[in-house]
Amino acid sequence: MRLKRLYQITRTFLHYGLNELIPARWMPWSVRFARYSLFWLPNRHKDKPAGERLRLALESLGPVWVKFGQMLSTRRDLLAPDIALELAKLQDKVKPFAGEQAQQLIEKALGLPSIDDAFDDFSVAPLASASIAQVHTATLKHGEDAGASVVIKVIRPDIRGAIDADLKLMETLASVLAKHLPDGRRLKPKEVVKEYRKTLIDELDLAREAANAIQLRRNFEDSPLLYIPKVYSDFSRPNIMVMERIDGVPVSDVDTLMTLGVDMKKLAERGVEVFFTQVFRDSFFHADMHPGNIFVSREKPEDPQYLGIDFGIVGTLNRDDKRYLAENFLAFFNRDYRKVAELHVDSGWVPAHINVEDFESAIRTVCEPIFNKPLAEISFGHVLVNLFNTARRFEMEVQPQLVLLQKTLLYVEGLGRTLYPQLDLWQTAKPFLERWMKEQLGWRAVLRSVKEQAPYWAEKMPEMPTLLYDYLSTQKYQIAQQQAAAQALVHSQRQFAWRIWWGIASGALVVATALFWVTEQSHWLTAASGIFSVVSIAMSWRKVSTK
Q1: Which of 98, 317, 399, 526 could join 321 via S-S bond, C-beta 3.0 to 4.6 A?
Q2: Which residues contact 299 (CB under 8 A, 6 or more apart)?
Q3: Do 403 and 495 lie in a common domain?
């Protein structure tokens, strides 16, 4: 079965001429010979550009490869721009599996004799179908939300086996590329596939996705920026998730949004604000914000609100990453390339032995031509990509959390420019970042820290006298111990010095006695030397007085 799938993949790659994407000088003779031996599999799409051929090949190979192409489309540091743009067109729409089978999976997962025991109006026909799961509509039958319209997300049956098989083939192909391609070390195909495996396996766990949705909903509760549907945790399982059904306009349907009178400028700016709020305020961001997962509420078009779905992929940043990232952005705004270089070294993203002056010069070389353009023509996401490319030349290791961030930022920027082409993402983001930095470093940060720690301090305040007494008592005991230890150390050093001196004397006397004996000196001299040797050896083992 594995060989059959490998042949199918090989045939697809050759039919679309993907081997031509690799320069001939990079391919060893064995690979070229193998290509010529498969003469009955010619390139049938010579009239199409390379990027389109790659996209069509991935679509024909199925959902696992489609998602892999979607992930690759965000790695502008690895692909040519035209290929990355073409891969961004990959659509995650596949033929649905039988609705009756989905109903059986739901009943089994929830332990229901019949789906009618928990839901009314279950739709056997799926509302939507994607590579990993499909969605059915229903109405809750019981509980405080009885009558609420919901969607039930169901993982495709037997999808794990197909995913594991294709992932193993991807890993084999990645190993071959890493070994034979001259640029394999920089492209890191094995690391890319490993990253993809983790992302894909995470998406298979709907209980994890439900938890992500609950966290995001709590972060944006009562927010005018973003609405996250309610998740019904009682019905969440690893392969089933039940969530509130939303009614919104796909964010990519610009014509409908315009017809509804949506304030497009405000909508675009709010998209940027949602992103930076998730990253810098919450340290927890939706990392799959492509147009298929984002909708716009039909209510209040003059004050538009986003609706989000599909929370299988989320990103997190620790406090240090957030601060360094914000400082990097602000340094870029101010064209302070020295600061950018130093921040990369300080954060540990670039090794400390790297020459900061050389790194600063490389960053300036990349960025100054970009900054000569009008701000509205500059891609913020591409600046970030160029920065990572340059840093990688200076031994910067791939930071998984930054890759997700880069991917999400490219989505957000593309979305913003689609909604409002005049969007100046830089000017929209800069005030937010400056305000966040002030809150982190200024007097507000001090007040917030005091406020956060106040309950703990109040709890410990009654214990302070006892803690202070214990501390002073302990200090007195520790001082006595330190003095005793110091005296013991001095004594030990004196003992060591005594033994060294008498040891040297003993050695000299033993050698002298031996020489006197060999050279047949007078017996009394030899005897005296021997006696002194014995006395010297005894003295070397004598203990020194501690006084």
Answers
A1: 317
A2: 305
A3: no
- pLDDT above 80 for 275: yes
206-212 long-range contacts, Cβ below 8 Å, gap at least 24? 206/133, 206/153, 206/155, 206/236, 206/237, 206/238, 206/239, 206/240, 206/241, 207/236, 207/237, 207/238, 207/241, 208/312, 209/241, 209/310, 209/311, 209/312, 210/236, 210/241, 210/243, 212/311, 212/312, 212/314
Question: Are 190 and 266 part of one and the same domain?
Answer: no
Helix-strand-coil percent breakdown of the chain, rounded to 5?
65, 10, 30
pLDDT tens-place string over residues 71-80? 667 555 556 7
3-state secondary structure of 241: strand
Residue 168 and residue 19 share a domain? yes
| Residue 129 marked as a ligand binder | yes
Per the structure, how many domains does the chain have?
A: 3
132 annotated among ligand-binding-site residues: yes
Separation CA 494–CA 500 (nearest Å): 10
Q: Is residue 395 part of a domain?
A: yes
Is there a binding annotation on residue 128? yes
- Using alpha carbons, select from 231, 239, 183, 190 the residue that is nearest to residue 211: 231
Alpha-carbon distance 264 to 269, whole Å? Answer: 9
pLDDT band at 244 (very low <50, low <70, confident <90, very high): very high
Please give the pLDDT value at position 26: 53
Q: Are residues 269 and 353 in the same domain?
A: yes
Are 536 and 434 contained in the same domain? no
Q: How does pLDDT run across 192-228, given as a tens digit for each residue?
A: 778 778 878 888 899 999 999 999 999 999 899 999 9
Residue 525 and residue 516 in contact, taking contact as beta carbons nearer than 8 Å: yes
Tokens 């996705």 found at = 209
Judge whether 14 lies within some domain: yes
For 354, the domain range is: 262-441
CA distance 291 to 33: 43
130 is in an annotated binding site: yes
Q: Helical H runs in 519-544?
A: 523-540
Both 400 and 266 in one domain: the answer is yes
- Rounded (5°) CA angle 322-79-171: 90
Token duo for residue 501: 């001196």
Q: Minimal CA–CA distance to 313: which of 193, 404, 414, 411?
A: 404
Is the pLDDT confidence value at 547 over 50?
no
- Give the DSSP letter of residue 113: S
Is there a domain that residue 299 lies in?
yes
Beta bridge partners of 137: 151
What span, in angstroms and rounded, lies between the C-alpha atoms of 96 and 355? 55
Q: Rounded to whole angstroms, how far apart are CA atoms 268 and 290? A: 14
In angstroms, rounded to a whole number, what is the distance separating the alpha carbons of residues 71 and 75? 7
Q: pTM of the entire structure?
A: 0.69
Within this chain, do residues 279 and 395 fall inside the same structural domain, yes or no? yes
Give pLDDT, residue 325.
Answer: 78
Q: Are residues 437 and 488 in the same domain?
A: no
**Spatial separation of the C-alpha atoms in residues 498 and 543, rounded to whole Å:** 9
What is the set of active-site residues? Answer: 288
- Residue 248's nearest CA partner among 312, 303, 293 is 293
Euclidean distance between the first and final Cα of the chain, in Å? 86
Strands 226-227 and 306-308: parallel
